[in-house]
Amino acid sequence: MSSARTDDVPAPAPGIVHTRTDAHLGRFSLRPVDPVRDAEMLHGWLTHPKSAFWLMQEATLTDVEREFMGIAASEHQDSFVGLHEGEPRFLMERYDPAHVELRGLYEAQPGDVGMHFLCAPTATPLHGFTLAVITTVMDMLFADPHTRRVVVEPDVRNTAVHALNEAVGFRIERTLAKPEKDAYLSMCTRQQFEAAREAGARRETGQTPGGTKSR
To answer: Which residues, other chains included, contact 2 with Cβ-Cβ below 8 Å and sequence gap of 6+?
Structure first.
């Protein structure tokens, strides 16, 4: 699986596969996970109480290393560490839903790409950070011209991520009964993502779709 940069920004550091500059929070970028070097950091993120929906609360360091080694060896999925101003701050997994996570559970279409993302737990959250992260993730996925639709399957109880998904254009299709959870099968086309970004930009500038100031 591959990606390309779309922003007019300086050349990335070695290993960086995508960058995006957020108007308020600065530069976001992604690099492939190193299953060995990143294992300790990811173990801390994934076993934190705030990461309960990743279902790895009891994972050992070895479990985490093996999990990401398996992803790295797979032809149907890959994973990335997300950086904010050069510092590791989030995790992204990309997968082919026809083969991983959703195999046999929905009718996959050419150009479908699945994803998971996780913001590193922090005691000092930045306003708008999670929205900037998911926007960066979606920007990376749609930078690949072969991507037509992003597919996700969040836990039905994860209300925070449902709101974020809606903000970038996802629409819930139906509920799925997966072995590990009940999930909302949700889809976002390239057009829905672009429309959501344009709507967000209008809200920030206080403009209505017609271009006039809102009250």
So the answer is: 144
